[in-house]
Specification:
With 183 residues, the chain is an alpha+beta fold. 16% of the residues lie in helices and 22% in strands. It is built from four helices and eight strands; from the N terminus they run ααααββββββββ. It has a four-stranded antiparallel beta sheet with strand order 1-2-3-4. It has a four-stranded antiparallel beta sheet with strand order 5-6-7-8, with no helix packed on it. A hairpin with a 5-residue loop joins strand 5 and strand 6 (108-112). The protein is globular, with a radius of gyration of 16 Å. It starts with a helix and ends in a 27-residue tail after the last strand.
Length: 183
Amino acid sequence: MKLPTYFALILLSTAVMASIASAYQGEQLFRQNHRMYDRLSPGGHSIITTKGNLTYMVYADLSRNIRVVKYNHNTDAAETKNLVTNGYQTLLDGHHYFAIGVDRDGYIHVVGDMHHYPFKLTSHVKAPYRPQDNGGNNTVLYWKSRSPHNINQFDFLGANTSKRIKGKGFTYYNFTNDRNGRL
């Protein structure tokens, strides 16, 4: 299956994106500048991004598992992996979106499933991602790939006080790169 069709099916299977994707042909969606997706995604969340010849996407499948997709435009090859493998499932309530970004070194960053996290709507969150886990240090649901351009393994950094995204009460989040590629 060609990638544009593959991604289009993912978008169409995601209720939030279905109405947006139906207005475009799959080829059009994935041949446009990646910034178009930031404008199309609900709440401005960056669910898809491109770095060089690679496009990345984060979404919740119909079973509420968080999935990361990597597509290589040169080889037309796609791979899909679960962000976490411990059975974690997101809430699908219109507020618990995800965002993905790639830093200038190629590391993939994912945040999501937060609606005023860590203060509200956390009962569905499994250990070790609950606010009370890791000594109460979890303030953001944030993962980073272990190696550049690799979606096989992500580390949870939400409790790491020196590496996590600073702040509390996350609800609407987005990644963007500056002119120098800094995320």
